[in-house]
Specification:
This protein starts with 27 loop residues before the first helix and ends with a helix. The chain is mostly helical and 138 residues long. Helices cover 39% and strands 7% of the residues. Strands 2-1-3 form a three-stranded antiparallel sheet. Helix 3 crosses helix 5 and helix 4 crosses helix 5.
């Protein structure tokens, strides 16, 4: 029996009213306002897309109007450029929630997102080997 409860489900006055096994206090759908898609433009964030705070982001007054999860993501992005997957792990939030929150931040001009280069646009391996061989020959 938990020392903070009476055994019949009632909380003891002054005791903790939740524990680590209870899960997050705010459910994911509450953080996103019930939305499952990021922003009105339905931007799609790849797990490896890199997120950085925009140099021309709105000021502290506008940031203070954001929710705590939005501000948490901004704090993580200020520390270093991170992927969507890293942000989700560091913020301890589901990836779907992070995508919706990042959509909000992107629409408001707080962050910039760089998309990963598709493999079809990467240089041919043969060309890279020739460059390496040429550099070694110097």
């Amino acid at each position: 029996m938990n020392e903070d409860s009476t055994g019949d489900g009632r909380a003891v006055p002054g005791g903790r009213w939740y524990d680590a096994d209870a899960g997050p206090l705010v459910r994911p759908y509450a953080m996103t306002g019930g939305r499952t898609k990021p922003g009105p433009s339905n931007v799609r964030f790849d797990l490896i897309a890199l997120v950085v705070v925009d140099d021309h982001a709105p000021g502290a007054a506008e940031e203070s109007l954001l929710g705590p999860e939005h501000r948490s993501l901004l704090t993580l992005c200020r520390a270093e450029t991170q992927s969507v997957a890293e942000l989700a792990a560091d913020a301890d939030l589901p990836v779907g929630v992070v995508r919706v929150l990042l959509g909000d931040l992107l629409e408001a001009g707080f962050v910039k997102v760089s998309r990963p280069v598709p493999p079809a646009q990467l240089p041919d391996e043969r060309i890279l080997r020739e460059v390496i061989d040429g550099l070694r020959a110097l």
